[in-house]
Write a structure and sequence with these properties.
Strand content: 15-25%
CATH class of the largest domain: Alpha Beta
Number of helices: 21
Helix content: 25-40%
CATH topology of the largest domain: Rossmann fold
Radius of gyration: 27 Å
Bound molecules: iron/sulfur cluster, nickel (II) ion, copper (I) ion
Oligomer: single chain
CATH architecture of the largest domain: 3-Layer(aba) Sandwich
Length: 709
């Protein structure tokens, strides 16, 4: 053991020395009052905050932190003590990185994105709980042969993992043509080894955001990251002492470290492991962390992985485009009887995508599904997936749905042999994989013949879209006798449970009542369980005995009383991945809402990230509630408090997005015309007095209502 602990202590002492000197220098030159903060986070210096509860705001606050850091380095020859020294290294790295951010964004280009803002972490919640992102890889160092590291990283990418790069591997992967960026799930953090702090704080903030771990509860923090953050480290190349002690920090958080050099007998089973054969790196890493990936073996010539979902294909790189603005288009999934279709049949009707110049075509993606458990209600659930499945293909980009979409196939994909039939294969494979419980047979037809597409669009697709919309519109909480729980997020937020109703979708925006119903059919023991609507306690609040009982059971006793329609009385819990969060402006007698994408400040003086930190982790916080975008225009939004007329402020983009539905709802329920225009936004005012002045001049109805609290 001695050799390993020596390395860890040497590294930790070196980092401690550097940190102390850097802090002293910074104080000497800027003064102890100089502000120090990472951008767009509500968690200060997250490692220090989570581990000790200390809210670092100025350079002066760091002096005490350096003292704590040094006290963690005991130089005792026990692995447990040495791992604490590893945590000291993590703290030192965090401080050194934070110093780079004094006065704003770092001036020096470190080759990476650096600090990851809170909203990005929140946006990762859903893909992580659904297994869409099955794990997080940290790849650091410098590989002896760049090809080996690029191969490993591409392998993770193909399997949907989120990979963070630290060190020279960034340049090596770039040279080898690895597609990088958050959209590709390969994220360069920085060349210096201290940049590893930016992934450490992601794991730590996950514990604060989703896990409701209290700042200062170090044991709770380490238990959370070990049990719930599926991360591991791959270190390439020669290991210096600092890297080893940073690795010890990773091990303390519960993340195994796999190195490609031969450590001989200083390995620690399950925690520090040598894998010198790079062909084994990925398999061993996933196994050590218990990460299971779904093999996606579709017989097409291009990659197929969720990691390609964010890929952008520029017009100049496009071989073929199917765009509703230029040609008729439709995407339609229909239920059939088993005797009506032949399973596995994929047909192309009309011209394929061949050509030297840009090929522009109409397209109907026509999918027929048969199965004894297939319901008409599942048609739109499956249909909406087409967007994701097409995007998963490397070299294919898709936006929109139904009769309004844009689909591009890249020149690279075409050159590799990708043709229309392959799109059919993708749909067939995914339906039989994801919807196997309801789909016994599936037939896919891709039509580019303009007359046929127009006929399908007019005679079949449009009437069906309209009928579905009418059904959705007519589907109210009163019209059904079953609601659903959603506990998918419990893997991160153990005591959280959403209640999904026709008029209130999950706060992530990704789970509607129909989705929940379909999931119950697909995985009967899964995250969506039916709640029979029984035992009304209060209609206005949306309080039901059966809802309370189901939530109590689903949260194992953590939450016993939730309302469906109130923000102030027993509101639903928030996990952390909500699309929007709302809060109160007492002076305006109303609520403001802010969405995750909005980076500015709100009338409360807080940003989305700061507001979001007021709620989450499966806790009920009256007055602050996470919710989906779609819920804003629901007749049930804040129904108990007076409904949508209480909304007084939203970012402009959000306003424009919800305007048509919101105007309709408010007109119908409260008889007010053009309501959305009466809501203030950041282009009008964020200062509370100016907001009030605007609401006055616009005649906002909230001002006429009773005080909100
Ligand atoms: Fe998580 Fe709620 Fe969305 Fe389910 S509906 S995935 S629990 S946020
Ligand atoms: Ni959505
Ligand atoms: Cu969530």
């Amino acid at each position: 053991m001695g050799a390993l602990t020596d390395l860890i202590y040497n590294g930790a002492n070196a980092v401690a020395g550097l940190t102390e000197a850097a802090v002293n220098d910074a104080i000497a030159s800027g003064g102890a009052d100089t502000a120090v903060a990472f951008p767009d986070t509500a968690y200060f210096l997250p490692t220090i905050y989570a581990a000790t509860g200390v809210k670092v705001k100025t350079l002066g606050d760091l002096t005490a932190c350096v003292g704590v850091l040094k006290s963690l380095i005991t130089n005792k020859d026990e692995l447990g003590d040495a791992l604490n020294a590893g945590l000291a290294t993590a703290v030192g790295a965090e401080i050194l990185q934070a110093l780079r951010y004094i006065g704003g964004a770092p001036a020096d280009d470190d080759g990476g994105i650096g600090f990851v803002p809170d909203p990005v972490i929140r946006s990762l919640g859903v893909p992580l709980v659904t297994g869409d992102i099955p794990g997080v890889a940290v790849v650091l160092g410098e590989a002896a042969d760049p090809k080996t590291v690029a191969h490993v990283v591409k392998d993770y990418q193909t399997n949907g993992l989120l990979t963070f790069l630290v060190g020279k591997v960034i340049d090596q992967c770039a040279e080898q043509g690895v597609k990088m960026g958050l959209d590709y799930r390969v994220v360069p953090l920085g060349r210096g080894v201290t940049a590893v702090t930016h992934v450490v704080t992601v794991a730590i903030r996950a514990a604060l955001i989703f896990g409701a771990v209290q700042p200062g509860d170090l044991a709770g923090l380490l238990a959370y990251t070990k049990e719930r953050v599926p991360a591991f480290v791959n270190a390439f190349g020669a290991l210096d002492e600092v890297t080893v002690s940073a690795g010890a920090g990773a091990i303390a958080l519960g993340f195994p470290v796999i190195v490609d050099s031969d450590l001989g007998d200083i390995q620690v089973p399950g925690a520090l492991v040598s894998v010198t054969d790079h062909a084994e790196t990925v398999r061993t890493s996933l196994e050590l962390r218990g990460i299971k990936v779904k093999a996606k073996n579709i017989d097409i010539c291009m990659g197929f992985a969720s990691a390609f979902e964010g890929e952008i294909i520029k017009k100049a790189d496009t071989q073929a485009e199917f765009y509703s603005g230029n040609n008729p288009t439709a995407e339609l999934v229909v239920r059939r009887n088993a005797d009506e279709i032949e399973d596995g049949k994929i047909t192309v009707i009309g011209p394929d995508i061949d050509g030297d110049a840009l090929v522009e075509l109409p397209l109907a993606t026509y999918v027929e599904v048969a199965g004894s458990k297939m319901q008409t209600d599942f048609e739109p659930v499956i249909e909406r997936k087409i967007h994701h499945w097409f995007n998963y293909v490397e070299g294919v980009m898709h936006t929109g749905q139904r009769n309004l979409f844009r689909l591009r196939v890249s020149r690279d994909a075409y050159a590799a042999g990708f043709r229309l039939k392959d799109l059919g294969k993708v749909i067939y494979h995914e339906i039989m994989d994801e919807f196997d419980a309801v789909a016994d047979k599936c037939r896919v037809t891709l039509i580019t013949d303009v007359a046929r597409v127009r006929e399908i669009l007019e005679k079949e697709a449009m009437p069906r879209y309209r009928a579905r919309d009418e059904r959705l519109d007519a589907m109210t909480d009163e019209s059904v006798d079953t609601f659903y729980t959603c506990t998918l997020c419990q893997s991160f937020a153990p005591s959280h449970c959403c209640v999904v109703t026709p008029e209130r979708l999950g706060l992530c925006g990704a789970v509607s009542w129909l989705d929940a119903k379909a999931t119950k059919e697909l995985t009967p023991a899964g995250p969506n369980q039916p709640i029979a609507k029984q035992g009304v306690i209060d209609e206005r609040l949306g309080a039901y005995e059966s809802v309370n009982a189901s939530v109590f059971e689903a949260t194992r006793g953590a939450v016993g009383s939730v309302t469906l329609y109130s923000i102030l009385e027993d509101p639903m819990t928030s996990c952390g991945c909500f699309e929007c969060v709302c809060g109160i402006i007492p002076e305006a007698k109303g609520f403001f809402i802010v969405n995750r994408e909005y980076a500015g400040t709100t009338p409360s003086g807080m940003s989305f990230g700061e507001l979001a930190s007021m709620t989450g982790g499966g806790v009920q916080t009256p007055g602050f509630m996470g919710h989906g975008r779609h819920f804003i225009a629901s007749k049930k939004f804040a129904f108990a408090e007076g409904g949508a007329p209480r909304i007084v402020w939203m970012p402009k983009e959000l306003k424009d997005d919800v305007r048509p539905r919101l105007d309709k709802t408010v007109k119908e329920l409260y008889g007010i015309d053009g309501f959305t225009d009466k809501i203030c936004d950041e282009t009008i005012a964020t200062d509370i007095d100016e907001v009030l002045a605007y609401l006055q001049s616009a005649g906002h109805p909230a001002l006429e209502l009773a005080d909100i609290m």
